[in-house]
Predict the structure.
Amino acid sequence: MAQTEPQVAAYGSWRSPITAASVAQGKGALGQLALDGADVYWSESRPTEGGRNVIMRRTPAGAISEMTPAGFNVRTRVHEYGGGAFTVVQGTVYFANWADQRVYRQEQGGQPEAITAGHDLFFADFTLDAPRQRLLCVREDHRQAGQEAKNEIVALDLHANPSGTVLVTGNAFYAAPRVSPDGTQLAWLTWHHPNMPWDGTELWVGTFHADGTLGKVQRVAGEPGEAIAEPAWSPEGVLHFVSDRSGWWNLYRWQGDHAEPLYPLAAEFCQPQWALGMSSYAFLAPQRILCAYTQEGTWHLGILDTREQGDQQSQGDHQGAPLQTQRDAGQQALTPVPTPYSYIVQVRADQGRAVFVGAAPTQPPELAELNPQTLRLTPLRQSDEPLPDAGYIAVPQAIAYPTERGLTAHAWFYPPQNKDYAAPQGAKPPLLVMSHGGPTSAAPNVFDLRKQFWTSRGIAVLDVNYGGSTGYGTEYRRRLNGQWGVVDVDDCVNGARYLAQRGLVDGDRLLITGGSAGGYTTLSALTFRDTFRAGASHFGLSDLEVFVGDTHKFESRYLETLIGPFPAQRERYRARSPLHAIERLASPVIFFQGLEDKIVPPNQAELMVAALRQKGVPVAYVPFEGEQHGFRRAENIQRALEGELYFYGRVLGFTPADDIPPVAIENLS
């Protein structure tokens, strides 16, 4: 059969099978994992059910069932970003419910029963204290109106405890309570304002009294400026953790009077701890650790053997051939585990097996199981995100390019890809620059239908890991300290110019988009630079001074690191705020905003919209009732994607092939 010639059509007007509806109606993200006996549990979002999260269970026979009844949403508000919303103890599930923030106990086949009071008390990051038959967790107490919420570590009886028994208190934040295997000790993380958990945290250990209270406590790690993460006890009761004291987040173990580095490597063995319950490593045996680590933005899996060289046993692949190991001067060995993934999270292990969530540039996230003996990978659950024909999938290309101060920045470039279309001779595609949230976060090189939505319509995408992003070491991460709104903007601008100078995109048709902190970068780039024709802010910041007084506790002092102390540096806050430089903004902007957002309140968008409306700049505003920070409802995800495409089409002069309900754009002639 003769091959059909691609249809010639303008960039942006290509018809694509990757519709906004298909992006919105997948099952959503695979979340937290847990192992309980032979069963695997995980959380999974439901965009078509109002964005609720449910717990799923898989038996050894492969039977998959949904555990969470209708009317329940497994999600916690601790730190607002949540995480660590459930645990499983011998078949009984304990979870935090979004609507009332109560902790529920659910027996196999039964209905959930509340064990705590709700609404003003939030709970997360559960761990079992087996000898005393209780759950330990982080509690966030909002009972004192008008005062900052109080964070503590508390104990909950497995059957009923309205508020919890306080074990550790006195600091601003707590995370990761972890009980030693013999039940005699508790480890936890804590940090103080103005630090975020990647700026500086401390690791503490306490010994339990017979009555379950804590006696002697000591700080075992966390010097000023050192970020500790993910404490975990080995099966033999040796405390391990991740620290960036070397300039990279590497693994360490506590030897009673000092911390021993396990495998020094220019790589990151964890992610920034935005959410509770994160896990980048797990124990296969007392001295065998399955760990995920990232280098140059790509994640890998390895088995770290911490025994002396003479005691180590050779590891093999599923055919019995020895795998190459990497060994440092301390004789520990890291054996790479071959996987098809470029992004790996939620590493869990128990009873001679391991599970994790992995994703790749051409493969949606999936839950995978690893046999540690054979290194054989078995997919257990694939996300319901539809996988298009390869002819519509743009594969990201890693680029490193020069930016300000003689430095190098990193990004992923997605060229347009649609097997059914070709552009007119000599035409170059528009470019949509994406600025990730956080800003202390990273853009991974994984399959993302939202990016393919754009590239399959003929719009190139540049996903920027600007200075301040994670995955490139502590020095790169700290580039943004005091420079938010400068370094991130420079790196987005220079990335776009880099591609335009090489003839890969149309330098006169550059766009920029971002959510949350990425929305702030977007608005700053549009305001303080003249590079971009238009942009989209998804729940982004516009007034940094207002944000300081409006946002939640977790991020209430974040800007002291990113901008400077407040109010001492008030003028810098105003100078970096797009709202206070509205006279410099002349490019069209569309805003998308959840009206129940507690992290970036709606006034951050509404003040900007009003100012642009009065100035006469083309502006559109799409608010969503019932949405919080980040859109979870399928209809809103679809509307935001289609609305942004419609907006760009009107500004750049192309007509999308999709049948899109129009968006009201003010001041656009």
